[in-house]
Amino acid sequence: MQELSKTKHRILLYLIYAAPLLIAGSAVLYLFASKQMQKARQERAWLILRAPGGHEPTQLVEAMQDLNRDGISLEMITVSGLDLKGVQLSAANLSKARMANVILVDALLSAAILADADLRGADLTRASLQDADMSGADLREAVLRHANLRGADMRQARLHKAHLSNADLRGADLRNADLRLANLQNANLERADLSNAILIGADMKGAYLPAAKLIGARLADADLSMANLLGAELAKADLKKTVFFEAHMREVHLQNATLGGADLRKANLQRADLTEADLQGADLFDAKLQEANLTRAKLNGAILRSASLDKADLSGALLEAADLRNAYLREAMIDGANLKNANLSKASLERASVLGANFAGADLSEARLMDLQNWKQISDLTQANVQGVLDPPFGFLRWALGTMGAVSEIDER
After folding, report:
1. What distances in angstroms separate CA 119 from CA 49, 88, 97, 150, one per listed residue?
2. Which residues lie below 8 Å from residue 322, measured CB to CB, with a gap of 6+?
3. What is the pTM of this model?
4. Which candidate, 367, 365, 355, 361, places its Cα nearest to that of 342?
5. Are 356 and 338 in contact (CB under 8 A)?
6. SS3 105
7. CA end-to-end span of the chain, whole Å?
8. DSSP 143
9. Closest C-alpha among 255, 260, 308 to residue 283
10. How high is the pLDDT of residue 1?
11. pLDDT tens for residues 38-95?
12. What is the mean pLDDT of residues 315-333?
């Protein structure tokens, strides 16, 4: 019995002291085996990606996902033309990757690094690229319809002829990006930064751009019909021949912008800042410009027929030969403005201030002049047509025709 007890005691001691060593050894063996399996899986993944022919799309997707899951960098990888639909590569390093014509429909690439990647012609429809780094990426003719690009870094990205209709670009950084002829129809660009971006000929119909920054951007010949630009910043932007038909541009910043020949028909520019903007030859038919700041703006030859300019500030504005027929200028500040040869037939100038304004050769026939302010300080009325003016201030017609050289003749046009 004593010998049996000693044997049991030895076995117990063995279990107490040796078991942990066995467990630790097993753990080491397991980790070693896991590392070997991981290494084998990675080697298999690289083999699949280096010779993708003959492999199913699901195998290609799994190979990339395995490598990314193991924290392996995919920098400079070549996957051009592959079908990687639905691949999940969040936070992957794909910088300088060669991915031309790759299919990435419904891909998950949030916070991925795609800086300087070649994605020409890639299909990223509905892809999630939120907070991704796409700076300097080549996305010419890429398809990004309905893609989530919220907060993405797309500085200096090449997006010439890219398809971005209905894309979510809220807060995206697109400074100095090339978006020539890109399709941005109905895209959401709220608070996006497009400063100095090139958007020449871009299709931006119905785009949503409240508080977006487009300072110094080049949008010549772009189409922003019915776009929402509430409070957007477009100071010094090149907007020659840009279409803003029925666009919502309330409180937009357009200081020193170039809008020569732009189409602003029926646009809402209430309280917009157009200080020193160049609008020569622009079409603002039926535009809403109430309380807009047009100080020293160049509007020579512009069409402002039926436009609403009530309480607008046109101080020092150049409106030579402008078409203001049926325009509303009630309580407008027109001090020092040049309206030489402008057509103000049937315009409403009630309570407007015209201190130092030049109306030489202007057509004021049937214009409404009730309570016209500072009319005796008009600088020039030579050959201005005042035929049939309505509710002129007392003594205005005698002064205009007798002292200032105005004429009263029926317009037969």
Report:
1. 17, 17, 8, 18
2. 299, 300, 301, 302, 303, 304, 339, 342, 343
3. 0.89
4. 361
5. no
6. coil
7. 134
8. B
9. 260
10. 56
11. 778 888 889 888 887 768 889 999 999 999 999 999 999 999 999 999 999 999 999 9
12. 98
